[in-house]
Each structure stands twice: as C-alpha cells, then as structure tokens.
Write a structure and sequence with these properties.
The structure holds 2 protein chains of 2 kinds.
Chain A (H helix, E strand, L loop, with lengths): L4 H21 L3 H26 L3 H31 L13
Helix pairs in contact in A: 1-2, 2-3
Chain B lengths: L1 H25 L3 H21 L3 H25 L13 H24 L14 H10 L2 H21 L10
Classes of the chains: A mainly alpha, B mainly alpha.
C-alpha cells in the first residue's frame, strides 16, 4: 500500500477523537468503556502504521501486549459494572457520586 | 495498478471505519452501539491487512470483535439494559464540551500531522510474516510474554474477586 503515512495517522487521530468524545459525553458506563476501546484501537492503528513505515516488527509485537492489557482492563471494568449495577440498580455514571462502600 | 487499487481500498475502509465508529458512539441502544463497533473493527482489521500486518488483522477480528465485543454483549444482556432503563440521551450540555475538546484534539493533531514533512512520504510496502513475528515474540520478548500471561491471570482473579457472590451483602 502506498498511501501517505500522514493519512493513516489522521485516520487514527479522528478515531481517537471520536472515542474521547464518547467517553466525555455518554453517561452509560458501557458506552464509556466502548469509547476507551475505540481509543485503544486508534493507538493500535498508529503502531501498525509505524511498523510498516520503518519496516520494523517491534511495534507490531507491541500490539500483542496492548491487546492483553485491553482484555484485562475490559474484564475488570465489566465486573465493576456488574457489581455497581447490583448495588445501585443503575449504570448511569452520574449516579455514582457517594464515595462510600 | 494494483497499488492504486489498494490505495482506493484504504480510503473506502477508512471512511467505513469512521462512519461505523461515529454511528456506534451516537446510538442510544448499547446493543446497536456494539454491533456498529464490530463493523468498525472489521474495517480496521482490513486496513491492518493492507498495512502488512495479517496477524494483527486476525487478532483484531478474533480478540476485539470476537471476544471483547461479545463480552460487552453478554454484560448488556445479563444486566438487561433496555434502552428505556438508560439515562436520558445526552443533550447539548453534554455533547458540546465533548465535541469542543475532541474537535480541538483532532484538529491540532491533524494540523501537526499535515505540517510534518515525514507524513507526506508514502508508506513502503511491508509484510510481517507470521514466522518472523513468532520468532521475535518468543526470543526477544519472551519475558514480556510471561508478564502478559501473569497480567491476564491477575485480571481473571480480580474480575472474580470484584464479581464474587458474597459482595452482594453490601447491596442497599
């Protein structure tokens, strides 16, 4: 593929901004987590493009560790969502403002 | 000719990924959001394949679209999150600052990328063979692989601890 490096980076920047907007604007915990997922996949896109640009494998290997980190983060975050829903009966991020056990 | 075709493919897939992601974050029903995001990840996986990373493309489909998004769907179904149970749609008061901040970051990074001389140079064709990938992974990065497996173990234990049945006692 011979598209300019910058175009791939711009795609990643736009994806990251969309994910950031979702994290900031949505109130449901699930949608906030989806925003985080979008931002991580934008980072993966930058790593893969850098791997092609500099002809090095290492940043593609980094993607593997990013994937395991994301999987771990999602597992714990979704367990938290389930616990919060059990305790308070809602997944509205605005409802969790009490800071007590 | 073939180069031109892959370039056109890239722009089509890039717009598909952007549109699917935008649709995903604006859906009210989380199930629709997850399905749109799966479409976006498929488009992104094809872009990875075009960028010469077939293994990453496969993982994007298997791990992101296959495992993580299905986990999201499971949780949405376990919690029975119907659209009417969710908080009211975010109004201008919530979208405006998010659009402002996200737009600022997007605009600044796009400007920075456009002005960088490196960005206009074209990507050379590259192909990361799975064999070379595996060799590098299990020789140079063997310790990191062990650390990643420990990380997954800790995450599993942590998820079990947070979600254990006994924690229900504290429920109101």
């Amino acid at each position: 593929m011979t598209v300019p490096f910058g175009h791939v980076l711009i795609l990643a920047a736009l994806l990251f901004a969309i994910g950031l907007g979702s994290v900031l604007a949505r109130r449901t915990l699930i949608m906030i987590l989806i925003g985080v997922e979008i931002m991580v996949s934008a980072a993966v896109l930058v790593l893969v493009a850098a791997s092609a640009f500099w002809q090095q494998l290492d940043s593609q290997l980094f993607v593997l560790f990013l994937l395991t980190t994301t999987a771990a983060e999602v597992a714990i975050a979704l367990a938290l969502v389930v616990t919060l829903r059990r305790r308070t009966g809602t997944t509205d991020a605005d409802a969790f403002s009490e800071l007590r056990g | 000719m073939e180069q031109l075709l892959t370039n056109i493919f890239f722009y089509i897939l890039a717009s598909a990924a952007l549109i699917a992601t935008l649709m995903s974050v604006t859906r009210r029903n989380p199930v629709h959001a997850v399905i749109y995001l799966v479409m976006g990840f498929f488009a992104l996986a094809l872009i990875f394949y075009l960028l010469g990373a077939p293994l990453i493309a496969a993982w994007e489909v298997i791990v992101y679209a296959g495992a993580i998004m299905v986990l999201f769907l499971f949780i949405i179904m376990i919690l029975q999150l119907a659209p009417q149970d969710l908080p009211a749609a975010a109004g201008y008061g919530r979208w405006l600052p998010a659009l402002l901040l996200g737009g600022t970051i997007a605009a600044c990074s796009v400007l920075l990328i456009m002005t960088d001389p490196l960005a206009s140079s074209r990507l050379p064709s590259f192909y990361a063979a799975p064999r070379a990938f595996g060799q590098a992974l299990f020789t140079h990065y063997a310790l990191a692989v062990e650390a990643a497996s420990l990380q997954l173990l800790f995450a599993a234990v942590g998820a079990w601890y947070i979600g254990r049945p006994g924690s229900r006692k504290g429920a109101k």
